[in-house]
Structure formats: C-alpha cells, structure tokens
C-alpha cells in the first residue's frame, strides 16, 4: 500500500469512529417530544409488524425511552430536497466547479441506483435552503481528522413524524498535503455520507458504499446490497421500533 493510500485509510478510520454516535442517534434534528411515566402508561404498545431485516439494515434512530427504531423519508416527501453548499476549497488538481459537480454526483449515485428498485424515489438539489430536508455543508475541518460526518434525525410535530438529516465534508481534512482529496475520492466520501443521511449505517464486510474500504472507489459505489438495504428500510412503517411498535410520541398522537 502506498503512503498516499495508507493516509487515506487512516482518515477514513477516524471518520468511522466519529460517525457512529450520529448514525445511531437523532442529534441531527430537533429533539423529539419528551416522554413522562404518565405519557408512557397512556401510550399502549401494539406491535405493527414483525421486522425482517435485509442486507445490513439496522436501527437508525432512538425512541424517547431509548429503544432503537427505524426512520426514513416517506414516499409522500418525494422529491427529497437536498441543499448543497458550494465547497470553498477545491479537490486536488480540480476547480471549485468540478469539485461541486463531484459532490452532487456522489449524491445522485444513490438516486440512480435506488430508482431501479423504487421508481418513485427522487432527489432535488437546491442551494442555500435552510428548510431543505437534507443539509450538505462544506467545512474547513470536520470532527477531529475525519473527512466527513453525517446522520439522520427525527422529531414529532402535530402528530406527524418529521425526518431531517445532514452531513459535513472537508476536501482537505488535515494540514498535510496528502490529505487533500482527489475528485474520485471526494465522490466516494460524499456517497458514503449521503447513505447515512438516508438512514443507513456501516457495512464493513461487504462491497458497499457504506464500507470504509478505500478500494471501493474502483468499483460501483452504490451496490446491490446498498439498494436492497434501502428497500428493506422503506418497507418498515416510518417510526417503528425494534419491538414492532410505533414510537411513543406517535402512539400518544394517535390517541
């Protein structure tokens, strides 16, 4: 392995360690409604389904009582609006315009792949829209020496589950020149982080955009197992806990 490749692997490993809390929590969105013992007692738990996972599907949210759950962008929210910030520092040997195009391409990889299984899935790229469903922000530095950080979040308002998410990325995550990403490397990083905003966690032992194997950039970035996992996520009613019941705030709202 070259010194350049070794450095990139190290950067990705640090990004992996940094992302785990966000991917498993709801820190990218406003806090959900607080639960009390009285509200828990009124919100009777009735299973809505038996969850059968596929691919590397795993819970991507946490209910107010700490129970893992599944959230996603529902079909009626399509197209998902994605606000993308123009990077202020270009990728290695590239213009800002080409760097921006690589970021958008990394996002669009998911749309192209998912539409083969879910034709109604759609994205809309916008600029500087704080109300967009997904916020994509360029940063001089992300967490520690990580090159990207992202996740999905949720809140319940007026009895409805609202999902929002975001990710940050850096084109040069450290001061050493070897850290400045090339266009293909940036495209793969963005594809990985955008998978988190759609509700996916890591898959470290498969050919997937959600792995941290840097060699994946030489192959299809969003693979069949990624699409299969997204499809399995969308087959679960939004806001379903691992015990098959709806999240507590949703149960309360339905009473």
What is the count of structural domains? 1
Instruction: Give me the CATH superfamily.
Output: Collagenase (Catalytic Domain)
CATH topology: Collagenase (Catalytic Domain)
Total number of helices: 6
Q: Helix and strand string, N-terminal first?
A: HHEEEHEEEEHHEH
Beta strand %: 15-25%
Q: Report the major sheet.
A: 5 strands, mixed
Shape: globular
Q: Could you give the count of β-strands?
A: 8
Low-confidence stretches: 1-43
Report the radius of gyration as a whole number of Å: 18 Å
Q: How are the strands of the largest sheet arranged? A: 4-3-5-7-6
Mean of the pLDDT scores?
80
Tell me roughly what share of residues is in helical segments. Answer: 25-40%
Helical/strand content category: alpha/beta
| CATH architecture descriptor name | 3-Layer(aba) Sandwich
CATH class: Alpha Beta
- How far apart the termini lie comes to 59 Å
Walkthrough of the structure:
The protein is an alpha/beta fold. It has a single domain, classed as Collagenase (Catalytic Domain) (3-Layer(aba) Sandwich). 31% of the residues lie in helices and 16% in strands. Strands 4-3-5-7-6 form a 5-stranded mixed β-sheet. Strand 1 and strand 2 (68-70) form a beta hairpin. The chain starts with a helix and ends with a helix. The model is unreliable at 1-43 (pLDDT under 50).
Quick tags:
alpha/beta, 31% helix, five-stranded mixed sheet, disordered N terminus, single chain, 8 strands, 255 residues, 6 helices, 16% strand, three-stranded antiparallel sheet, globular, Collagenase (Catalytic Domain)
